[in-house]
């Protein structure tokens, strides 16, 4: 055998590489996005035939305020600049460290950046993503620290009558020691699923980094699917590569909360977790905050830490014609929960959040019971930018 | 609290939903792709301002053969048809069940299908994907069967001097019983990483389905990262959201094979796996076949099953100025390996594969030792379509 012959030739022949033939050498030269030294981003697209290319993203200057004020979630499209070679570019002003999302609009067609392999799915849309700095003091970046394990695992939910999928994070060291860990149940919002906290929320990076810095206790984090009629994230269940929708059947009608004990039972049977109130936390964003609230209200002995991020308070639908028992006698349930003195009820919301009335009602209900919750009001609205920050703050307060 | 008020209004207010405002109601009406009853696919794009929209994918008719013959990996772009409303469409002829990849080319800009949330990354490119039928007799679809767990886990590689990431599949039931399982080490090709067999290879679905049907033994499948200088897949390591490249430093120079015992040691310490030759298999595609071959040649007592899919045989570079001991005395190592009579050496390759000379050399080396390997020659070339099929065939032959 000629076993010493190099075979660089194979590189050119890989069928998928061949399939990726560049359309033009000028296209091949483009790198996008580029994070510049001053934390501005340059986005580029080679599109000599396009008449108009716009950039839309949650880092764009709103245009109506001072240059250092970026609207949260401002996706107002901005025209990119075309050069003589057919390259369109736009460089933003310097940005705050953050995990940003964007799209390009090419003659009216909204696309992800073809040169950027990093995308996230949010409900039924894909966005290109770029990490500027580390985001909230570096917590969103993968660093050279011990890493936890992320599992996609299926459990049986007899209450839902389905096999269902969840994401489970175990901290670095879980595989090599015999310790039992406290556990955080971390719930997503409407239209997304058990992928969301990991993919959009950078939960893995936040936990790895905070645990490595000694700022958060090592914990197991369970991220179930909150759409009770759904087995798993789109494409991961037996219904195939379906179109994702915002709202699934049985949304916020009591059925997810009713089936929640199936999740706790599976987790406490399967993983080395501590099984008492002192070592259980529950938190969620938007619909997940709503779920967390009602699960805690209906199980007042179960959770010592409750995190409500941009939380909904009002249910969305009835279970058939009936109001679920989950949502009955709520005032009484607030009284009972507060009497049991959970160590922390932590509330976070943006000042522009459309759920601010829900926030008022939630705090009024706790005030009525003279319960001293923690409250963080931030800039911006109903966005992952806030929820990543809330998670980063909340997990540092747990199990201490 | 007005807890009985429905709040459908929130749907319209979710900031990211608002960000996803449709550009036009006609765009909002489009569903793409659609798999039709006859297994043809219809791809659609709303692009009234585009002058030319083409479709490129590995399902396109080569155009030079009979209509029932599809070239493997034929990405020859085909012009789509524009209607009066600005909608471009193309319907393929009926296709064989398969997990297909495609892109659209809009006035020269190659994009993923904006209406299709399902994409895969292959090296530095993203493709839209569509599953027609189940692929190889339904094995590529998620079915209503018991599902295994997929983990992304980090291990210490003292030989590489890095923390590194691997994907580990454990079969349904692993968490709830005390059995020990046989283990398959499954290696990827050049330019991809520990995500590839799961994302492009549908390994999770293939294993879940074959185990549920009783056609494969329940087994643990370990999918490490074969780029020894790399911690993890792009974006998952501490170097950040880097640009993916085809070839990483220390590719096929002996260093991955040398560090492979770190992987076995971690797996046998961490998971309930059987630790003898009879219960170990190793397989890989292209560079991963090369790795599998040399790991087996250098560890002739370790693996009872060896799978070489479109395998390279010749190394690519030296470890510095020196030829690694891994690649020395190869004829002798073939002799030793064959004398140890591994139960199965399984070779699969496409008739159009550019590595057919490597395949000839490999079989000649085994023939010289009168070793009776299994050999499958299929249509097509160096493609995931073949590798998914080879995996589906190979795993049915293991540990029986």
Distance between the termini of chain A: 64 Å
What's the rounded overall pLDDT mean of chain A? 90
**Unreliable segments of 5+ consecutive residues of chain A:** 1-23, 63-71
Percent range of helical residues of chain A? 10-25%
Question: Count the helices of chain A. How many?
Answer: 10
CATH topology of the largest domain in chain A: Rossmann fold
Strand portion of chain A: 15-25%
- Spell out the helices and strands of chain A N to C: HHHEEEEEEEEEEEEEHHEHEHEHEHEH
Tell me, what is the CATH class of the largest domain in chain A? Alpha Beta
Widest β-sheet, arrangement of strands of chain A:
11-12-14-13-15-16-17-18
Tell me the Rg of chain A in angstroms.
Answer: 23 Å
Structure report:
Two copies of one chain form a homodimer. Chain A is an alpha/beta fold and 400 residues long. The first copy, chain A, has two domains: 20-133, Immunoglobulin-like, CATH 2.60.40; 149-397, 3-Layer(aba) Sandwich (Rossmann fold), CATH 3.40.50.1820. The first copy, chain A, is built from ten helices and 18 strands. In chain A, strands 11-12-14-13-15-16-17-18 form an eight-stranded mixed beta sheet, sandwiched between helices. In chain A, strands 3, 4, 7, 8, 9 and 10 form a six-stranded antiparallel beta sheet that branches. A four-stranded antiparallel beta sheet of chain A has the order 1-2-6-5, with no helix packed on it. The longest helix of chain A has 16 residues, at 255-270. Chain A starts with 8 loop residues before the first helix and ends in a 6-residue tail after the last helix. The relative contact order of chain A is 0.11. Mean pLDDT of chain A is 90; it is low at 1-23 and 63-71.
């Amino acid at each position: 055998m000629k076993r010493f012959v190099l075979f660089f030739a194979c590189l050119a022949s890989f069928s998928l590489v061949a399939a990726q033939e560049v359309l033009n050498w000028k296209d091949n030269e483009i790198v996008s996005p580029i994070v510049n030294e001053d934390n501005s981003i340059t986005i580029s697209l080679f599109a000599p035939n396009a008449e108009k290319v716009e950039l839309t993203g949650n880092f764009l200057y709103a245009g109506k305020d001072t240059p250092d004020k970026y609207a949260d979630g401002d996706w107002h499209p901005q025209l990119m600049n075309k050069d003589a070679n057919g390259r369109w570019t736009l460089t933003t002003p310097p940005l705050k460290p953050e995990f940003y999302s964007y799209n390009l609009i090419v003659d009216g067609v909204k696309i992800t950046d073809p040169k950027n392999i990093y995308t996230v799915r949010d409900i039924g849309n894909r966005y290109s993503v770029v990490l500027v700095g580390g985001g909230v003091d570096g917590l969103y970046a993968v660093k050279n620290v011990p890493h936890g394990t992320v599992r996609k695992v299926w459990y049986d939910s007899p209450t839902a009558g389905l096999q269902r999928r969840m994401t489970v994070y175990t901290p670095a060291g879980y595989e090599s020691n015999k310790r039992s860990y406290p556990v955080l149940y971390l719930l997503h919002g409407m239209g997304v699923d058990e992928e969301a906290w990991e993919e959009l929320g950078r939960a893995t990076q936040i936990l790895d980094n905070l645990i490595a810095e000694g700022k958060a206790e090592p914990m197991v984090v369970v991220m179930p699917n909150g759409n009770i009629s759904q087995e798993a994230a789109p494409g991961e269940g037996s219904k195939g590569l379906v179109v994702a929708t915002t709202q699934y059947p049985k949304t916020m009608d009591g059925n997810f909360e009713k089936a929640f004990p199936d999740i706790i039972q599976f987790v406490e049977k399967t993983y080395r977790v501590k099984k008492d109130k002192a070592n259980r936390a529950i938190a969620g964003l938007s619909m997940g905050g709503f779920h967390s609230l009602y699960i805690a209200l209906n199980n007042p002995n179960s959770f010592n830490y409750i995190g409500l991020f941009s939380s909904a308070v009002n249910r969305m639908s009835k279970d058939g014609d009936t109001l679920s028992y989950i949502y009955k006698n709520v005032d009484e349930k607030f009284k009972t929960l507060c009497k049991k003195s959970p160590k922390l009820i932590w509330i976070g919301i943006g000042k522009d959040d459309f759920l601010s009335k829900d926030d008022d009602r939630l705090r009024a209900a706790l005030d009525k019971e003279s319960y001293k919750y923690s409250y963080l009001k931030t800039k911006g609205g109903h966005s992952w930018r806030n929820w990543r920050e809330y998670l980063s703050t909340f997990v540092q307060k747990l199990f201490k």
